[in-house]
Design goal:
Rossmann fold, 31 helices, alpha/beta, six-stranded parallel beta sheet, ten-stranded mixed beta sheet, single chain, binds pyridoxal-5'-phosphate
Length: about 725
């Protein structure tokens, strides 16, 4: 590096006026930073990192925050030192080409959506760790959905909420109890701009309630070719309390909740109208945004003079509703008082009675004791509803069968489209390079095709293992850095901090478990038999280590107790160096974990995991799934592409299910996973294991990609909805 640092920085300045040059370079970097396209392009990420690797990490990988620490001059200087000009120009040109490229899959297959795009509503979007407007799986799914819609060139706009405190940051106390910290997001550090009307004024929308008006301003975030519009209640005109309405994700009581959902659904529709966007399809991702349908009905009555019944039918034909929750208790419910307070003025304009409105959200329309359920409204007001895995489809049809009492279960009109993940966002750079070298040219444009991924079997096993081993070492470095920092923050002794710097061993079978700490996910299942766990973990020849991460909802005390139990394993002599809890699970932690572990563990109580997507991210990087046959894994596992816990049965009594599943977990670990991992040839390679890694990548990567998922939505939902055809989504 030293030879490129020495040339005098004055020299180039004389050739080109420095202001002009510096400004354009600075502007190019800022353009890159203001489209989240950069977040799935490793060469652009590396570019930002190279500008200042330490600050990059400290600033949560936020390029806007990073660039604000540079003057144009300093950026110029740094670019000269590192010879970054051509890389910046190249990245900038690629972004421009991407934005202007008319040759997309969507152009060919979804052309009819052209002037009337899909409006995709979701309460959260997980796009990158530096944009904290997500809490977990639902958000990451929405983020991956719009990234793939961008990649495929689907005409789609997205609508969400801007949370200026996002979800909480997690710290643990010395004895493992979760602490929540909410940080204010600096708007000027976010990759967004005011969404403006024709006169250049930031758009604000207003929603009437019986107790006053709610106002929200609208922001625009660029996610590749997709525009994401975010509503934000922190505006003048709102009461101080309402200004904080969209501060936090899933905070507050049911009243906060219904007001957030009113802003998202009704406010979201009004924002689209103010922008001059007429959606051809409404895709409501989970129940939070379903009030949008009522506003869409009002628009049709008002603009086109339709009757309520005709408008309802028309809106339903253009609406796609995706449900994510496999238990009745998980669905948003509101009592009549809250509904009337918040939907009353809209109801007046729809010219329907209170009873009629409540009936739309009830299974039994006239049952006065029944609250208003968002999912019921979603099912009634969409002609196409879907669950998010095949098994979840069965569960949802059974759960909602009473909405269609005259139909048998198979005919309940809820289909399924299994979730998938956005490959470029989750694929490790090193793995990406391996695929680039071995896969057919242009594979990234064809990542939803099975043939592409079969090429993995042509890769040399030693090479695949080498890449995996390198990624595992990167993960361990990350864990050690994080955990030692955790210990220091808690004021623990130097010896403890130092010990954390030497945690874990790259040659030991490494299992990862990270997800929301809801009790049904049973994070402590492997601790149900401490003696057996001890034997596994401390086997002298074939040891095992486990890395845990995850947040519990602030109100979920049992979830917090689970975290405590696992985090405190560090005080236990037998587990101290082998069971680790990493704080503050987010997209960044996910990325490290799923790229570096040998095994990705998932042991929910079946059938409560609607789909799950973290295991799909692990697949791309060569980790093997070890999972209960629930969610996506129930349709993915073929006997040779990972490991199954149990045989996909559950007992009516949860306690019995738990005992049996724990037994099955230990059985498969002791008899399959551990022996296979440590079965090495003369070169130290676990050939059978590597074969299984290849089977996993070859059979699963394309099927559980978000490109395949979005293409399925286009073919099975969007095109039908756009044409207003009234056929239902078929059960597949
Ligand atoms: C992928 C992801 C999830 C969802 O994973 P599950 O398998 O559904 O638990 C949740 N949180 C984060 C941060 C993720 O990246």
């Amino acid at each position: 590096m030293s030879q490129v640092m020495s040339p005098p920085v004055q020299a180039p300045r004389k050739l080109i006026p420095s202001e002009l040059r510096a400004q354009s370079l600075y502007e190019k970097c800022n353009s890159l930073a203001h489209n989240l396209w950069w977040s799935w392009h490793p060469e652009v990420i590396n570019l930002f990192r190279d500008l200042d690797p330490i600050r990059w990490r400290q600033l949560d990988h936020n390029p806007i925050a990073l660039l604000q620490e540079f003057t144009p001059e300093r950026l110029e200087l740094r670019a000269a030192e590192l010879v970054l000009y051509s890389r910046i120009n190249y990245a900038y040109r690629r972004l421009k080409e991407y934005m202007n490229n008319p040759q997309t899959w969507g152009r060919t297959h979804a052309g009819v959506l052209g002037s009337k795009p899909v409006a995709y509503f979701s309460a959260e979007f997980g796009i990158h760790e530096s944009v904290p407007i997500y809490s977990g799986g639902l958000g990451v799914l929405s983020g991956d959905h719009i990234k793939s819609a961008s990649g495929l060139g689907i005409p789609l706009v997205a609508i969400g909420l801007f949370y200026d405190q996002g979800y909480f940051k997690q710290h643990l106390t010395h004895d493992g109890y979760q602490q929540e910290e909410y940080l204010d997001t600096k708007i000027e550090m976010m990759p967004m701009e005011p969404a403006c009307d024709a006169t250049g004024k930031q758009i604000t929308v207003t929603v009437d309630t019986r107790t006053g008006q709610l106002h929200a301003k609208v922001w625009l975030m660029h996610v590749g070719r997709v525009n994401l519009y975010l509503l934000d209640c922190d505006v003048e005109g709102n009461s101080p309390e309402d200004r904080e309405l969209t501060s936090r994700l899933y905070g507050g009581d049911t009243r906060t909740r219904i007001r957030q959902e009113l802003v998202l659904g009704v406010g979201g529709c009004r924002a689209l109208a103010a922008l001059g966007i007429v959606p051809g399809v409404y895709h409501l991702n989970e129940g939070h945004s379903v009030f949008a349908t009522l506003e869409a009905i009002r628009e049709r009555m008002h603009n086109d003079g339709m009757t309520f019944d005709n408008a309802l039918r028309d809106v339903a034909q253009h609406t796609v509703f995706t449900t994510h929750t496999p238990v009745p208790a998980g669905h948003d419910r509101f009592d009549g008082g809250l509904i009337e307070e918040h939907l009353g003025p809209l109801r007046d304009q729809l010219r329907i009675s209170y009873e009629q409105l409540m009936g739309l959200g009830r299974v039994e329309p006239h049952n006065e004791g029944e609250p208003f359920t968002m999912t019921v409204l979603g099912l009634k007001l969409s002609r196409r509803a879907n669950a998010v895995s095949a098994l979840h489809g069965h569960v949802s049809r059974r759960m909602w069968a009473h909405l269609w009492p005259w139909r048998v279960e198979e005919e309940i009109p809820i289909g399924h489209i299994t979730n998938g993940v956005h490959i470029p966002s989750w694929l490790a750079w090193q793995m990406w390079q391996l695929y680039d070298r071995k896969f057919p040219l242009g594979w990234l444009q064809r990542m939803g095709e099975p043939e592409v991924w079969q090429t993995i079997h042509d890769v040399d096993p030693g090479e695949l293992w080498e890449v995996h081993y390198a990624l595992k070492n990167l993960l361990l470095a990350f864990i050690r850095r994080r955990v030692s920092r955790q210990c220091r923050r808690r004021g623990e002794s130097d010896a403890v901090v130092e010990a954390a710097r030497n945690l874990l061993d790259p040659n030991v079978l490494t299992i990862g478990f990270a997800r929301r700490f809801a009790t049904y996910k049973r994070a402590d299942l492997c601790m149900s038999d401490i003696e057996r766990l001890n034997k596994l973990v401390n086997d002298p020849d074939r040891p095992v280590q486990i890395i845990f991460a995850g947040k519990a909802h602030p109100a979920d005390e049992p979830g917090k107790q689970l975290i405590k139990k696992i985090a405190n394993a560090r005080f236990d002599e037998q587990f101290g160096n082998r069971i680790v809890f990493v704080e503050d699970y987010d997209i960044n932690v996910t990325r490290h974990l799923i790229q570096g572990v040998d095994v990705w563990l998932n042991n929910p109580r079946r059938p409560l995991e609607a789909s799950g997507t973290s295991g799909q991210k692990a697949v791309l990087n060569g980790a093997l799934n070890l999972s209960v046959l629930d969610g996506w894994w129930a349709e993915a596992y073929d006997g040779a592409n990972g490991f199954a816990i149990g045989v996909g049965k559950q007992h009516v009594d949860d306690r019995i299910t738990d005992v049996r599943d724990a037994e099955a977990l230990f059985d498969v670990l002791e008899n399959q996973v551990v022996p296979m991992f440590y079965d090495r040839n003369v070169d130290g390679l676990p050939l059978v294991w590597i074969q299984r890694m290849m089977n996993s990548i070859g059979t699963l990567a394309w099927r559980f990609s978000a490109h395949r998922m979005v293409a399925d939505y286009v073919r099975h939902a969007y095109l039908h909805a756009a044409s207003g055809l009234s056929c239902e989504m078929t059960v597949r």
